[in-house]
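Quick note —
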Amino acid sequence: AFVVADAGAVPRSLVLALAVVSALLLLFVAAVLNASKASSRLLRFLPGRLRPAAGEALAAVRASLRGSVLAKTLLLGVVFQTLGVVAAWSIGRSIGLPVATSALVTSLPLVVALSFLPFSIGGLGIREGGFVVLLGQAGVNATDATVFSLLNGLAFALASLPGVIVFVRAGRSAAKEPPPAPLRE
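Predicted structure written out below.
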């Protein structure tokens, strides 16, 4: 939507990269949907010790594809991504990042996709390099892009802290509870 609204501000290379990443994402989703349909056939090709975990993963995928769960997940995903865009835009504005909002928003999903690659811890370094290269296409210098990336990562880490605290507390309370009694047949 941002690219369409302000197409002249987004370099063609960013639009092309976004199109490629979007196509790859669609292929991945199609593969997951196909795998969930053919799960019984696929499980028999796995080593025995992996079958229970793979079965649980496929059951989770099937459960998440149910109408109400999928609708809620998509809605929460849109809200989360919108907040991420607002946060990135705010950070960019706060440091005077000389880039059009449409170019910034176009680079975000590309950098997120790059940071998922298992080459670093938490995408650190990959994320910064991605912003340097992609925002460089839009005329942002390497220093500004790196500062933006580090601040964006810091903001995300700080925003995640409340969830980490809840997660840690829940783990501690679960560790104090006695294990459940075995089921009798």
